[in-house]
Amino acid sequence: MSKTIETIELVQPSPGTTRFLKVHRYGTAGAGAKAYFQAALHSDEYPGLMAANHLVGLLDKAEKAGHIIGEIVVVPVANPIGLGQQLNGYHVGRYEFSGGGNFNRGWPDFTDAVAGKLKGKLGADAAANVAMIRAALRDAVAEFEVTCEFDGLRKVLLGLSIDADMVFDLHCDNEALLHLYASARHRDLAAELAADLGAPVILLETEPGGNPFDETNAGAWWRLREALGEDAPFPDACFATTVELRGRADVYDHHGQADAAALFRFLQRRGVIAGDPGPLPPALGQPTPLEGTDVINAPAAGLVAYKKTIGEQIKAGETIAELIDLMAEDPGAARTPVISHASGLLFSMAVEKLVRPGAPIAKVAGAEPLAHRKAGKLLEN
Ligand SMILES: [Zn+2]
After folding, report:
1. Distance (Å) from CA 248 to ligand 1 centroid
2. pLDDT mean for each 10 residues of the chain (381 residues)
3. What is the rounded distance in angstroms from the CA atom of residue 197 to the CA atom of residue 285?
């Protein structure tokens, strides 16, 4: 089937205002593996918009050449609600102005709805079970009640993604190296994707908490397995990943081209697109547990003076930065060292150097789980 572009209107937030999504679809549903991409769910993270723009270009060419084997859905702008949030000339994303909270938290959990439909109905055929579970997940999304624009957005995006084999949620960090989050259950796929992308940091979680978009899609499978408590076989059939395409200022064609080409090659390796992706590039890093990542927060308000920089290997106990108390009367006594609890790669730093208490100022990816990092509370707010 040839490419289609769909325009989907969201729930009207106020009289006279309507926002909409553009959905690019390639291939035929059910013809092969399905891949889903969306960019900038937090809205003010532009590197994903750039990558998606280039990806659509590559997919258009592949489609014209007859190379699409499976099904591919791209939402190049995932959050028009957040895109419209301007305050005094600044674009303010991440949280919904209307009070809906963080755009990438609190996504619905369909476990009970799906388990209720499927209890006692799955059989010995894993492929048949996958098809039944996908149908039940689609039904659950269709039955998801919407009363506001943000829930309407959630419903549309999940309606496009919930039955996919692969879900790519394209984000970015503050100032950062390319890194990605995925479930430890999909370690090999995550490592392969990271190699293609050239990402030195792969953060694997078993329970990140907060119900972000990727976990809602991927977690549906293992949550259902736990809820059913049956031994009917089915795989964790959705690989979902949050890809952090470096930092917010890293918005360039050369990055977008490279990122889109890497995602395209990954789809070739997974048989969604025909053609030779070439050999997998060597890995730039090994996966580490998300609970081994030290998210280093500011102990107080102040001005951050970094002592380390992005890409440096850090030893536990080393000073990453000093926090300057701007109200101190003696500048010599105004500095508080901020240390890393993890040994590993410093992969994220703050853009805004004047921080409030508790603001994240650095992330260090360590290989060993940290005592203060708790499963279920591993992500930032
Ligand atoms: Zn984000």
Report:
1. 10
2. 93 96 96 96 98 98 98 98 97 97 97 94 96 98 96 98 98 98 98 98 93 97 93 95 98 98 98 98 97 97 98 98 97 96 98 97 97 86 85
3. 11
Instruction: Compute the distance from residue 49 Cα to the ligand 1 centre, in Å.
Output: 12
Amino acid 380: pLDDT: 84
Distance 132 CA to ligand 1 centre (A): 32
Which pLDDT score is estimated for 374?
85
* Domain ranges (residues) in the chain: 4-285, 291-366
CATH of 291-366 given 3.40.50.620, 3.10.20.70, 2.40.50.100, 1.20.1090.10:
2.40.50.100
What is the distance in A from the centroid of ligand 1 to the CA of 199?
Answer: 17
Query: If you measure from the C-alpha of residue 103 to the centroid of ligand 1, how many angstroms do you get, rounded to a whole number?
Result: 8
> What is the CA(171)–ligand 1 centre distance, in A?
4
- Region of 271 on the Ramachandran plot (φ > 0 left; ψ -120 to 50 alpha; else beta): left
Distance 259 CA to ligand 1 centre (A): 16
Give the Cα separation of 299 and 339 in Å (integer): 11
Q: What pLDDT, on a 0 to 100 scale, did the predictor assign at position 216?
A: 97
Q: Give me the pLDDT at residue 379, please.
A: 85
CA–centroid distance, 223 to ligand 1, in Å, is: 24
Ion ligand 1: residues, CB within 5 A, are: 42, 45, 171
Q: How far apart are CA 287 and CA 299, in angstroms?
A: 29
121 alpha carbon – ligand 1 mean position (Å)? 38
Architecture of domain 4-285: 3-Layer(aba) Sandwich (3.40)
Q: Is 280 helix (H, G, I), strand (E, B) or coil?
A: coil
Distance separating alpha carbons of residues 357 and 18, to the nearest angstrom = 38
